[in-house]
Write a structure and sequence with these properties.
The model has no long low-confidence stretch (mean pLDDT 81). The protein is built from 7 helices and no strands. It has 189 residues and is mostly helical. Helix 2 runs parallel beside helix 5 and helix 3 packs across helix 4.
């Protein structure tokens, strides 16, 4: 039981890194309602990190046939677009690129950052292991990381100004590159 909990915590921390990075970037542009936005973002990221392994577990391998052709390309495009816009706006002095208060953007980012959790659910199904406890742990860790990301990003932006927005955009672009290399171009390696 201890080994399963430790394994679940390590997987959860790895999966939560993208949500943390996005939250960091989003927190950098917040001027008000930082805690409220952090809690909402944490809940949204945590929910999707919780639910995606369950979906992956429930549908198993067939869902990869649906996601493989296009899903990862959409995720890459989303990160490149939002990250590029953040960098561009950062250089222009605009501060509204990753608006974690916008439901559509937050929903897209929550889904995009939880695609890897779907694959974790599929792998648990293939191994014949239970998924509920790991999914709960994954969701809680993602909530905590996302909330922390918003709060830290907001504090850093007060110190670094629009440089933090440029940094946040660069992080999103790098997440897009990671998705591109590991999921879209993985067949080349």
């Amino acid at each position: 039981m201890i080994e399963m909990l430790l394994s679940s915590l390590l997987i959860a921390a790895a999966l939560a890194m993208d949500a943390f990075s996005v939250s960091l970037a989003g927190g950098a542009v917040l001027k008000e309602n930082v805690l409220k936005t952090g809690l909402i973002a944490g809940a949204m990221f945590g929910f999707f990190q919780f639910i995606m392994p369950l979906i992956g577990f429930a549908v198993g391998i067939p869902i990869t046939m649906i996601i493989d052709p296009y899903g990862y390309w959409v995720v890459v495009a989303l990160f490149f677009f939002i990250g590029g816009k953040m960098v561009y706006d950062g250089f222009l002095g605009k501060e509204d690129s990753v608006n974690l208060t916008g439901v559509k953007v937050l929903l897209l980012l929550a889904v995009a950052t939880s695609i890897d959790a779907l694959a974790v659910g599929i792998s648990y199904a293939l191994m014949g292991e239970g998924i509920l406890i790991p999914s709960i742990i994954i969701g809680i860790v993602a909530f905590g990381f996302s909330l922390a990301g918003v709060l830290i990003g907001n504090k850093l932006s007060k110190i670094l100004g629009n440089k933090m927005q440029i940094f946040g955009g660069a992080i999103l672009i790098l997440i897009g590159v990671k998705f591109l290399v590991t999921n879209c171009l993985g067949f080349l390696f």
